[in-house]
Design brief:
By secondary structure, the protein is an all-alpha fold. The protein has helices at residues 2-28, 47-62, 67-78, 87-98, 102-117, 125-191, 196-205. The N and C termini lie far apart (158 Å).
């Protein structure tokens, strides 16, 4: 058993040495962004906010969901050694899963972590600004909906008022026609045919 653990320890040392050698080679080729030189204190970062972004960004870059890669990345950030979190080592480790996509992902991730540790709530400034923009956009959309509803309500009220006016005009015309008809019949009764009383008077004089 002791030999097994010694062998495992030796393999781990060889692996770490190989990674460090690779990091030095990449450093010479300037494959790491300048902001990797800045340290991040993960105790000041809200991982509850970072985890959804990590999962979404990895899925976007890889083109499919991979929980193993997401969990591995989160583990790299949460189980930090005494030396602290090394972004260069993180990129090398993530390259085994994401290949060329690891470099842009780790660069974005490190920028967000640097921003988050400066925030009182441990949230990157970019996330806060995006949330504000989303809320502002939703507020504007809600206002547009209210304005549209108000406009349609006014149109309905105006259309209803026009119909009422039309009905009133129609009723008024009907009453006018009725009055004119009654007046015509009355005038015919007075001047057109003699009344029975007038006939009796004529017969009396005769």
């Amino acid at each position: 058993m002791a030999g097994f653990f010694r062998g495992t320890s030796t393999d781990q040392v060889k692996c770490v040495n190989a990674e460090q050698k690779l990091i030095k080679e990449l450093d010479k080729k300037a494959r790491f962004p300048p902001h990797f030189s800045q340290k991040v204190n993960m105790s000041k970062v809200s991982m509850d906010v970072m985890k959804p972004w990590i999962a979404q960004r990895i899925t976007e870059l890889m083109g499919f969901e991979d929980d193993i890669v997401v969990d591995y990345c989160i583990t790299q950030l949460t189980e930090v050694s005494e030396k602290g979190l090394d972004p260069k080592m993180l990129q090398v480790n993530m390259t085994g899963f994401m290949e060329r996509k690891a470099a842009p992902f780790c660069s974005e991730l490190w920028k967000h972590l640097l921003s988050a540790q400066e925030s009182p709530v441990g949230v990157p400034r970019e996330f806060i600004d995006k949330k504000k923009d989303d809320l502002q956009r939703k507020r504007e959309e809600a206002e547009k909906v209210q304005e549209e509803l108000k406009r349609r309500r006014q149109e309905l009220e105006e259309a209803s008022g026009v119909r009422r006016d039309q009905r009133r005009t129609s009723h008024s015309r009907s009453r006018d026609r009725g009055h004119r008809g009654s007046a015509t019949q009355s005038s015919r009764g007075e001047g057109g045919s003699p009344s029975p009383r007038a006939g009796r008077r004529r017969r009396r004089f005769e």
